[in-house]
Design goal:
The chain has 323 residues and is an alpha+beta fold. The chain has 8 helices and 14 strands. Bound molecules: ligand DP6. Belongs to the diphosphomevalonate decarboxylase family.
Amino acid sequence: MRATAIAHTNVALIKYWGKRDEHLILPANSSLSFTVDKFYTKTTVEWDKNSAQDTFILNGEQKTDAKVARFIDKMREEFGITSKAIITSENHVPTAAGLASSASAFAALALAGSSAAGRDDTKEYISRLARFGSGSASRSVFGDFVIWEKGQQPDGNDSFAIPFTNKLCDKMSLVVAVVSDKEKKVSSRDGMRLTVETSPFFEKWVSAAETDLEEMKKAILNEDFIKVGEITERNGMKMHATTLGAEPPFTYFQPQSLEIMDAVRELRENGIPAYFTMDAGPNVKVICERENENIVAEKLSGLAKNVLICHAGKEASVISDEK
Ligand code: DP6
């Protein structure tokens, strides 16, 4: 039994930053993201009774990856199977540079794994399962705007993503300014753990993120791009502020990231509504209205290694299934 699935990566406009349960990957706060069309992972899973071990091939190279190994065990436990997995994955995302390759990777893996096991799981189930690979992967199961509800239950059964699609998705562009495509120094997992354990700003972050999310939902429902942009920018900055309070302090900002932020502010001063956000890496993601995407891309092109214009991406899907 073999199946192939595709999932797109997502960029959080309201960040997930900090876990309340490390083992179950339960977030301290709910988050909201925009799924993007340009970056995705395509993964084939085959459950093979005759293999003696799991195999994971990423972009043509055989890999050993502790997170993937744990996730395969999780799938076997969930699906009640004992077969070994043969996984072939193509990552169309600059790996580990703050572009959330793990989000699309685990969403595609969960969907392909379930389908290859002959199951017809709901997207809600796939989202909950993908969460065990990487929290942000729960959101990559859906397209457009997506909310990952933090949930209340200690077992995490109510912690999964739901679509929050709105017409505004089709009017919005996300311009990625790639500052570096090198592996990040502090992974999001380690960065958020250190923040939770040591930053005095963490508690404040959690309550601010909940307030930002409520305002963001209203702004999206009102199709108010400016408000969406303002909330996105301030939420991202609050998340990054927590890292400066950690012990030892750390930051994902690089000189070029700060220059790009300045350029975005300059665009606004010149009447172009554009707003930035950053994740656990130095790249800057800028949201703007579609009619301004080329102006924004041009402005940032001199400051970044590469500039890519993205639009709303679709939900994860199974593209082939052989029983
Ligand atoms: C800054 O989902 O990569 O991109 O759950 O530990 O695997 P783990 O973390 P991950 O964290 C993403 C953090 C972020 C913000 C976001 O995407 O919400």
